[in-house]
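Researcher: Here's the sequence for the chain we discussed earlier.
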Amino acid sequence: MSNVVLRTSDSEVCRIRCGPPLQAFAMRWNYVVRQRHRWADDPAARQRQTLRLQRDLRGLGVTAKHLRRLKGIVEVSVPDSPLDEFWEARILPWEYVLAAATKPHRVEQDILVVRHLKTGRRKRKRTPKRLVVIETAPGELARHFNFSAQRQLVTGGLRALSAETTGVLENPTERQLGEEIEAVSPDIVHVTGFDNRSGRERLGGNLSGLRDGLYLADPSAEAKEYRAEVIARLLNRGSPNPLLVGFHCWDSAARLAPMTIHAGARSAIGFQHTFDEAVAEIFFLHFYRAYADSQWNLLAAFCSGWESIAAYRPRIRGSSIVLWSADSLVSNATSEIGQNGFGIGATTLRPSTRPPAVSRSADPQRVHIRDLVQVSVRPNHQINYSSLHNGQSVFEQLTLRLHPNPSEPEAITQINDLELEVQLHVGVDSYPFRSRLNLDMDAYRYDLADRVTLPLTGELFRAINERIQTSLFVDLRWHDQVLYRHTHSVWLAPIDQWTLDDSQIGWLPSFVQPRDPAVARTIDVAQGYLQCLKDQVGAGFDGYQSYDGFASGLACWDGVDRQVRSIWAALLLSNKLRYINPPPSYADFTQRLRTPGETIGGGFGTCVDLAIVMASCLEWIEVHPVLFLLHGHVFVGYWKDFHAHQRFLDVATEDLPARTPDGEMPRDDASQRWVSGPKTYAEIKGFVDRGELVPIETVALTRGKGFAAAIDEGREHFYKKRSRAFRAMIDLVSARAEDGVTPLPLRFSESHVG
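Model: Thanks. This is the structure I predict for it:
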């Protein structure tokens, strides 16, 4: 049986045997890290994860004594196999696992993890001479990606290579890619574009059966998926094979990078799970510069690139940049490249032959702003009031990239007084944003999309009844020079419209209105039913304070059930609710939603409207509601067990999604901590099966069904073979936490209440 070896520059630390225990460990922690949006922002939750991680590592033979020795540069040496036999060692997020587990022992010492694939090939040194940049966003994917900035940072960073040996291959087919690599035999290949997951999401495809890989063009120039092993073979068609392949795309660390090394390359860089676009650009900019300046010292360059993103690491917590190499990089590392914060460093960087630059601010009389700054602007095609209300930007991208000229004897270090103006026009009204910016040329990139906040106080904005086409004006100027000026056409959705695409479903909690007067009246009616159920005149809604410490098992939470049952009775017996199709929205993947007052007062609602009513009532009494989203259906649920809810947030579960024979687990990352996607179905089903999470089919209100029958119907959605229908679960408590999603400022009237 082969082993994974953990070593530092001093010595080997320990060995971990490959096989079922490591496979189970890899699957569990891969899942936990992919669900990091639930727990990464909570220091206490991170501490609990560390304790669980240390416990699980002890089960693999990695003790506290071993963890104390893991500091500085730590190499994870993984056995190679043509059949992907040791997949568990490749997919495990070693960077998070070792950094988190050793943190209590390291105090202020840093750790940087690199990976070694034990191919058994002899080490051969040569100096890089040829570079190929591959840009692949074919067909419909092209409108989601702009390669010009990346091309400039790669070629600029590797300025030591002559322009004659640098080539760019745009949207190649499988054949074209293979022929180019075979003809050029590049020493360095930089690949940027769409991995199979993110590409299929952009194209709106079904994510079932997805495998790691990359999109290339088919013979008709449309987008086509290729698996990782195919891409790896294509990138190694040249002779000799590449010294380095850099993958600037998601999900490239677990298979694309190591398979490329297995096929012949000496090293590869990829990203574990997702990556932040700004972080990736900054990393590669500094990495390639350091790679050339250090006389092609890979480890020194990787250290430099990692240090350059120090300020951004909270944005990639749990995901990481991964360096794979066919050669062990920690052997004699200290003697080769000196000391720094990781125990080794980039002290062999060639000293600059230029005199120190004189710092100065850009002078509008001497320079053109477009020579210094590149602008990328991409507004959201449709602007929803609910997303703006919760702080989402009107832009998909609003980015400034700075391009200083270090060869000048007096380098420009500052650009002062850059003016940004954004105006959203709604009828005769306009909603302006203005800001004055001072840019530091060392920063390279400024992402301004989240800085643009528009006032939402106008009555006209909130009174829009139908989707309208309007304009978004963007103006960037520097003194009397115009850097960017354009009016974009955008769609503006009415305030009650909810968009069902993956980027917008997380705003559904804004339509849950616990302060709607109809909710207060419903709770007032439910009070009488609760008094009857408890046989107590003074019975009230006290949420989870109804816990009975003398009862055993889930019976201790029966008081929560009684409160929810009384609300159901009030809605069922005091209102004649009927089902109705949603109002017309005149747009794809959208739905117009009613307030609780409109649903109760009108006596009808869609599945979403009815779920919103019940969730609003549950939130009012402080019982934690959830919203279950299936394809084409929505219903409500609630956490019966308060402690089970905390275990869910911590991802403290053994209910993991099914894996493929080679351990591949499709990504289910979410940008919003309160949204749990399709790959959490097995975990959520476990809570439902144990009775800790109670689903209620709220459409049963329109059929006169009792509380128990509604729960039975809710459970039916979690029967076997129902997983394909599951889309997401939205946790209301998580959504509201820390200035999260707040209810929309809808206007209520007595006519809504009835």
